[in-house]
Design goal:
Strand order of the largest sheet: 5-4-3-6-7-8
Number of helices: 8
Order of helices and strands: EHEHEHEHEHEHEEHH
Structural class: alpha/beta
Length: 226
Amino acid sequence: TTVVANSRYTAESVRAAAPGARLEVVHNPVDLERWDPARIDRTGSRAALGEAGEHGLLVGVVAQLTPWKGQDTAIEALKLLCQEGIDAHLLLIGSAKFVDRATRFDNEGYLARLHELVADAGLEARVSWLGEREDVPELVGALDVLLLPSWEEPFGRSLIEAMALGVPVIATTVGGPTEIVRDGHEGYLVPPRDAGAWAQAIRRFAESPELGLQMGRAGRRTVLEG
């Protein structure tokens, strides 16, 4: 009798397909104990990453490896930043989980293209492929910025998890993230597939570490109040 959607964006998609449905929007929750910054040893988490954690700016994407999640945009943005002399490193956390022939996207082919993109840009030493992990809170807690460059995103659970840890975020303007992140407050909202715009947003954190701290604190407050 009722369809529960995880965002207003998702609800609108359901309403278009089933105009008569009764809809309720309930945003996804976050475990505030697991995603508590007081539980994370940020210095230790970065040290555990080895050379990756020694770079000036550590950014990451936590998502399955599939075209619509936009990891290619993150790599292209990293390339632009490195060309400008910014010392940045990208963590890709996740795997190509759905590889059956019936899957909508060729995720294995996409993974191969991502590796080619990294190699062509000479970024092998600046991208870490971490796959599926059990220590995601520790990895996210080590980041300076979490990225969510999806083409569109129904909600964006990784955003509220990062915000709960006090990590600023940059997210797509298409979908649920606009209901979670206030542009310029907890982070930035950036159009998908525009590597230049993503590089520009990331650059702000490289230029002002204090900005990241301020937005991280704002994100933590938003999650606690939500």
